[in-house]
Amino acid sequence: MQRGNFSVVTEFILVGFSTFPHLQLMFFLLFLLMYLFTLLGNLLILATVWNERSLHTPMYLFLCALSISEILYTLAITPRLLADLLSTCHTIAFAACVSQMFFSFMFGFTHSFLLTVMGYDCYVAICHPLRYNVLMSPRGCAFLVAWSWAGGSVMGLVVTTAIFHLNFCGPHEVHHFFCHVPPLLKLACGTNVPIVALGVGLVCITALLGCFLLILLSYAFIVAAILKIPSAEGWHKAFSTCASHLTVVVVHYGFASVIYLKPKSPQSREGDTLMGITYTILTPFLSPIIFSLRNKELKTAMKKTFLSKLYPEKI
What we know:
Layout: E1 11-14, H1 24-51, H2 58-85, E2 91-93, H3 94-127, H4 132-135, H5 138-164, E3 167-168, E4 173-174, H6 181-187, E5 188-189, H7 193-227, H8 232-261, H9 269-294, H10 296-310
Parallel strand pairs: 1-4
Antiparallel strand pairs: 1-2, 3-5
Helix pairs in contact: 1-2, 1-9, 1-10, 2-3, 2-9, 3-5, 3-7, 3-8, 5-7, 8-9, 9-10
């Protein structure tokens, strides 16, 4: 690799699914349906919580913030993916690549921080029910949501700044369907690339692992509190309070661990592209389904809110 032979990069080429030419139309239809369902599901959650006064509680405030972060996360990635699946031109401007990386990391980490806050909310609701209104006051909830968004913004800024301060050389072909860190690092050249890669990896893993450990700690206290409840009905009621959140956490971190902990190989480009679908499209697609189906209060409120408009004589 020649040193000093750097040129100013004005655009990148997103290879994406162009390596699967015969499947692009099928991918487009599948991803379009999943994207629309993701938007619809999250908008239904927001509308239901807005209209149903009984859901104006901290848990559903956090759920609304989570739905907004998921809508914005998919908005940063999926429309561009859908456009590329129908186009023969896969170039993306340098500035657009920078903004896509920033917003995808910002909303992605905001999502992780909000899941952590929701775990804390479950912990307070089950372990300290008498102090719940004090610990989860409106001001305290707004503070937690604001810090989650601020933390996501800082993570997005740190990662994006570190990556795009590198020099890029070569064909500028990004072997992914969006501007993601690993394929961009493969295009970077210079002696500082390994240091930046290590630093970005440590920052991201530390943040995600910290969130995961805090959620585990919350559920350790929750399980200990539930085991002290004498009746089976009490067990069921306590567990149902956090069942949907726990399911989403398992899905979120399960897919993330598969992506980031699997062994890397030089021949894994197409596999990495396909696996990228799990955390960019599949996880946001499943989240509103899980919250809608596993949360009895939300499911009942949705039926009351929307079925009453469609079939007023049956309500």
